[in-house]
Design brief:
Two copies of one chain form a homodimer. Chain A is α/β, with parallel strands linked by helices. Chain A is built from 17 helices and twelve strands. In chain A, strands 4, 5, 6, 7, 8, 9, 10, 11 and 12 form a nine-stranded mixed β-sheet that branches. In chain A, strands 1-2-3 form a three-stranded antiparallel β-sheet, with helices on both faces. Chain A is globular.
């Protein structure tokens, strides 16, 4: 019987870009980083499972320590039984009666569970010779429901309601898969809008976004109001009245400030305001949404788990749910989030940026389209052109859309050379400096 | 100019008690632990600052790693300037633009900030030769407000409102300090109610609680309904109709289950239900509270930060706020929590158990009484007789009340022998076997 033989962890960090790519109102000097995990087995089939938590520099070592603590649970486990019951595995990790004290279900330990769970999904998909989105979409509604931990959800979504959602999506699955393989999945680009770009660069990148076929851009806001007014005006003038322009405050504001600030930017017709305040503030988001309509409200990249997602939906606090592939407890919890969003009829528009988040989350949106929401309207995946070259199976964007991945796995595998160069602090990139 | 010279961290774990002390519906096999920190200075006055995050075993190493990451910020800092601006220090640590990604403001990193911030408060109090509660109570309203980060709070509490609350409490401060020194602060005991005790032990410990002068006990519930009905009946019969009996589900239930279960226990007149569901579920707590009145709802020990506290109060979700001294970002964030509770007129009844949580949190309740709420009615601090012998300045309980501490500091200092015995995994207690 093959078993899980070894779990290796890596502290991978990429130095701060000198061009202020990735700079926003709260994250002024990121070193995009991955607390990375590789799972090997005794199966002798050459497959390893890869996963990671994304961080932005300091603390990546803490994240690696958390992954090592979670990984102790899986070493020695029977491989086939583990991969056959990913719902059971998730509960086993999340409900560790001691480790949960450091959360529960939030922060470094929960992100570590995400890395380990996603690495096991990568392994499972490679062994079944399918890209992850296809592996998930081929599951039966019952099998999908079994992935989800409904603890703390049943006042908003029961297993039976989840089954109904999935069964309603069964007709047309084959057509939607064919559509994906032909047309891909819509993307939007954040590249023009980082704080710190001069207006000429903003204009140039806005024009580039239009030329590249995107139908939505996003601008970072929240550092300086008069700058934001000018940048929104310049961007709107450049892209014209019909292209969607989202704005993103990265948690910068209190509720009252958010409302005032957004109203000042409203003349430039922002499509959504993203993370106007703390990701923990469900009631704050609800108050902001009510005050700034018709500007829509989006959040999710820092939402810690399905319990907060549930409340954002129950409170009518968001127009778009922005799942992140590597913050909540991995694929399983994001299946819960997709089902919750479907129940409340809120489109999912994932967060993706950093290291490898585009690579991961495309699979979840494609699964959502095929098997859960069965819809594409008002749905877009974020795209930023950062660090894809380090991945063996990087995302491909064509005419403003994600090209549907067909290689087996979860697209999480880094090139071997990346470990040599960017391992912190002894990789060549760091030790040379 | 003296500076912060060194920060040492320690992984201290106490083995699982064989008597099932500390066992509840979610935490079935705790090894009470402290991720401990000691801060030394170049001042040459012999004072060190001590603090810790409490965990329950696995993961304590992750917590130590998080403390080390946070502590990097303070080594080398000017000592007097740091201790003179604890509000500024707090913001410096919490808003680290990279480290915050692992939260923000939650989980292992935020608990690490708590440990470091509390250790600095311990140091400050020792240097000023006052117990922490007295140090805080002697600050002016303006100085107290400066400790608080109002980010994300101003829709519920502004700095001016906080000032008003503190100024209203100024008359009578001297009398309340004198009252504390004479009478101490009311406590309740959780000792009778751990899951796993046989009924004879429950009865014996209930009688002991009455004899010891407590006016409130607490029972753990949530594992088995028929057991809970029997245990509540037995306890109520033993303590009589007038003593308060709280019950605590330790996050075990979904909203619907909570409501059904609590109604089944209502005939035994529980005073409050504690942690009926996930600590993240503000709206769930509100729904439960509405459904189970007149049974009151209490939560807080796992509430991650002031933003969730704010929402629990805004939503009318709780009757009692149970602050924990070492989970949110230390003294500063608990000052915010005390002010929020005062604004919404909700009594604070702290969580205390584990390792050293009684020692810490007594100072916060006593400060609350002297300078914030100015009230004792319906206020009690939890008391459990665990591991106090390891502290240099342990809590003292007399006739059901905490005796007001008078030694300088935050009562967080462990005996040197404890490090030798309980450091994990090389202390004598662990390496022996």
């Amino acid at each position: 019987m093959p078993h899980i033989a070894h779990v290796s962890t890596y502290d991978i960090r990429f130095p701060t870009p000198r061009e202020l790519d990735g700079s926003d109102a709260m994250n002024t000097d990121p070193d995009y980083s991955a607390a990375y995990v590789a799972i090997t087995t005794s199966a002798g089939d050459g497959h390893a499972g890869h996963g990671f938590a994304f961080t932005i520099g300091r603390g990546n070592d803490v994240q690696v320590a958390a992954i090592a603590a979670v990984a102790e649970h899986i070493v020695g486990m029977d491989l086939d039984r583990t991969l056959a019951d990913m719902g059971g595995l998730w509960k086993h990790l999340v409900h560790d009666s001691q480790l949960r004290w450091l959360g529960p279900e939030k922060g470094a330990v929960h992100m570590a569970i995400s890395a380990v769970v996603n690495a096991l999904w990568d392994l499972k998909a490679k062994r079944e010779n399918k890209p992850l989105w296809k592996l998930l979409a081929d599951l039966t509604p019952h099998q999908i429901v079994e992935l989800v931990d409904f603890r703390y959800l049943t006042d908003a979504l029961t297993p039976d309601e989840a089954l109904d959602i999935l069964r309603r999506a069964e007709p047309g699955k084959a057509e939607r898969q064919a559509h994906l393989l032909t047309h891909g999945y819509p993307a939007y680009t954040t590249s023009p809008g980082w704080l710190g770009y001069r207006d000429e660069k903003l204009i140039r990148l806005c024009k580039q976004a239009v030329a590249d076929g995107f139908t939505q851009i996003k601008l970072k806001v929240g550092a300086d109001l008069s700058d934001d007014v000018r940048r929104c005006r310049v961007a709107r003038e450049t892209i014209g009245p019909r292209m969607r322009m989202a704005i993103d405050a990265n948690q910068r504001w209190d509720v009252g400030t958010a409302i005032e600030w957004i109203r000042k930017l409203a003349p430039y017709d922002p499509w959504w305001i993203e993370e106007p305040t703390s990701p923990d503030d469900v009631l704050g988001h609800a108050a902001i949404r009510q005050a700034v309509a018709p500007v829509k409200v989006a959040t999710g990249e820092h939402v810690q788990n399905r319990i907060v997602v549930k409340q954002l939906l129950q409170a009518g606090a968001i127009d778009f749910l922005q799942i992140d592939a590597a913050r909540v407890g991995g694929v399983n919890e994001n299946v819960a989030n997709l089902l919750l969003a479907a129940k409340f009829d809120v489109p999912v528009c994932p967060h993706a940026d950093g290291v490898g988040l585009c690579e991961l989350v495309q699979h979840l949106s494609m699964f959502d389209f095929v098997a859960v929401s069965a819809a594409l309207d008002n749905r877009v995946i974020e795209y930023v052109d950062h660090l894809h070259e380090h991945f063996v199976d990087p995302v491909v964007i064509d005419n403003g859309r994600y090209v549907t991945p067909t290689r087996p796995g979860f697209s999480a595998t880094l090139h071997p050379a990346t470990f040599d160069e960017f391992t912190y602090p002894l990789g060549t990139e760091w030790s040379a400096g």
